[in-house]
Specification:
Blueprint lengths: L3 E6 L5 H10 L3 E7 L3 H10 L4 E3 L3 H5 L5 E4 L6 H10 L3 E5 L6 H14 L3 E4 L6 H11 L6 E11 L8 H16 L6 E7 L9 E7 L5 E7 L1 E13 L3 E5 L7 E12 L8 E11 L8 H15 L7 H19 L5 E2 L1
Helix pairs in contact: 4-5, 5-9, 7-9
Amino acid sequence: MKDITVGVIGCGYWGPNLIRNFNENQHTALTHICDLNKEKVERMKLRYPHVAVTTDYRELLKDKSLDAVAVATPVSSHYRLVREALEAGKHVLVEKPFTPTVKEAERLVELAHKKGRVLLVDHTFIYTGAVRDIRSRIDAGELGDIFYFDSVRVNLGLFQHDVNVVWDLAPHDLSIMDYLVAEEPVSVVATGAAHTPGGLEDVAYLTLRFRGDLIAHFHVNWMSPVKIRKVIIGGSKKMVVFDDLDPAEKVKIYDKGISLSKANEKTVHQSLVQYRIGDMHAPAIGNREALGVEVEHFADCIRNSKAPLTGGDAGLRVVRVLEAADKSLKKGGVRVSL
């Protein structure tokens, strides 16, 4: 039963995917589409003739029959649109990154709580079968203690005009780390460079430190000759490689690692490293579209008053790292506390 009415604001790169999934979901009725570009909404009207289209988002917020909105617009507009939607009593799904600043994210989290509305941040990878499989293995203790989280997300383009490569690409892997790693980072060091007019970094490296020995590293790049989407997680028992571009074996579990054999208990420096080389296992991963799972979860949270898996708090944690990384970049790679 389609008992939740939804409108989508923004018909750019990601908006059409949200529109399609809300239209196909069994619980959501797509009733409104909005974009500043009149030609875009008219094209959407041809594909979805039953939907009302407009270039003014306020029409959606004024419609009392509309239960929820999805915001798929540039990040600079997120705070205003999400705030007005929450104040109008709408549930909100907002594209990543959540907001441009920590203060704005904090205000929206507080407002959603005050209004009793569902606020879900579109950290799509959390809803993939691959990331959920890795999380289940970590929870079961299969990997042991996590030693490091290493991520590479590079390609040639798409250059953005409003945000640098960190804000564009890093939210994906930061959200994956946030979901998989129980600890929160305490500091970040970021270095990068801009090679095109405008001064926006197109290559960057982030290193996050935690209270213990855990370390996380992120490489994001718009100027790579090849496209890579890979995460490596090293544990004391097993290690995992998540390759999002591998259609057959997205997740590989390696029974590899090291153990320390002390030659003399009194002298740690005499410890001997022993290598463990075991089997590799590639589990079967479901291929359901992650955004479809996310939309289903959004509807379930609205219908049953549940807290979203990637709610405003998760979005805030990612924005906190992004904002600190920006500060580090501007100061030449100094360590910034979180």
